[in-house]
Amino acid sequence: MLIDYLIIFIFTIFLSLFFTFSVKKIAIASGIIDKPDMERKRHKQATPLLGGLSIFLSFFIVLYFSRDYVLAGDLEPSHWLGVFIGAGFLMIGGLLDDKYNLNPSWQIIFPILAALAVAAGGVGIEKITNPFGGFFYFDIFKFPLISWTGKIYYLAAASNAFTVLWLAGMMYTTKLLDGLDGLVAGIITIGAFIIFLFTMTTKYYQPDMGLASLILAGACLGFLIFNWHPAKIFLGEGGSLFLGFILGVLAIISGGKIAIALLIIGIPIMDVIWTIIRRLLAGKNPFSFSDRQHLHFRLHDSGLGTKKTVLIYYCLSFFFGLSALFLQSQGKLLALGVLVLIMLAVVICFRYLDKNKQA
């Protein structure tokens, strides 16, 4: 089985390379490029967008031809159909935004539709581990919705609400994180690989989810070859949303591995929370504009540059994500606490430096 997985993984990388090269040509021919403005966008030359489309195509094409493997567990075709439709909404919205620069009030529609499609497809989480013992259950509010071919389908209100909020948070995190070459694609590659390792252990053995995660890692790696600094192509709006979306989905359908996803992408999530708080304190709408106050930009502008900043993020994601393989629930909670302390220390440090500059 592992040999089959390795062959599929390598094939996915090469397919992603092919699609990335092709999408790059299409984006240039269609004029869907990102031009530097020397304010927030400081890349040296106009760069094609739509790169996320190559990951989307590679992932779902290989997933389809590997369906005998990925449907060997508890998942049904309807689950993956909901994920595919949701991802399709993101690709459509991303294409429109990359081409026409949509207003933020229109941009939000597509991530909401994507999350709702996943919930409608039956993907949800019934429970998560309580680090102090037992579980938190999300299927307590469950109502019969429709009967079809002898099977009753339920509306799980709490589970669906959690799924939508979780995916929205993951999508917004990777959207804001997508500011440096290779940053988002690399972190999602690490995250997918860690979920693969987790689901292949004896205790949590889920080979179907392991393969799906490995396919995602391969699709991201093929793209990353073109996206590494200096990037030849960018993810674009759809790609940055899709990667947070699909990692969030894998965290759910691999058995509620929410803590693992939080550890993998913990610093970016806390940066989003701090960004929202910072903008609200300034009396601004936190969702209506972009700036260079995100942590990755601050590290970049402090003199580290793109590659060093990206590698720091990679190391944090790998170290804390990998720690989840060896920690129990309370240990994972402690690791999350360490991430919070790191983020607080960084925020305090940069605010101190800002005050000294203003003095």
Rg from alpha-carbon coordinates: 20 Å
End-to-end C-alpha gap: 63 Å
Q: Helix and strand succession?
A: HEEHHHHHEEEEHHHHHHHH
Summed up, the domain count is 1
Helix content: 55-70%
Q: How large is the count of helical segments?
A: 14
Range of strand content:
5-15%
Number of strands: 6
Across the major sheet, the strand order is: 1-2
Overall pLDDT, averaged?
A: 86
Contiguous uncertain segments of 5+ residues:
none
The largest β sheet comes out as: 2 strands, antiparallel
Give a written overview of the molecule.
The strands form 3 sheets. The chain has a two-stranded antiparallel ribbon with strand order 1-2. A two-stranded antiparallel sheet has the order 3-4. It has a two-stranded antiparallel ribbon with strand order 5-6. The chain is mainly alpha-helical. The protein has one domain. The longest helix is centred in the C-terminal third of the chain and has 30 residues. The chain starts with a helix and ends with a helix.
Question: Main attributes?
Answer:
6% strand; two-stranded antiparallel ribbon; single chain; 6 strands; two-stranded antiparallel sheet; 359 residues; mainly alpha
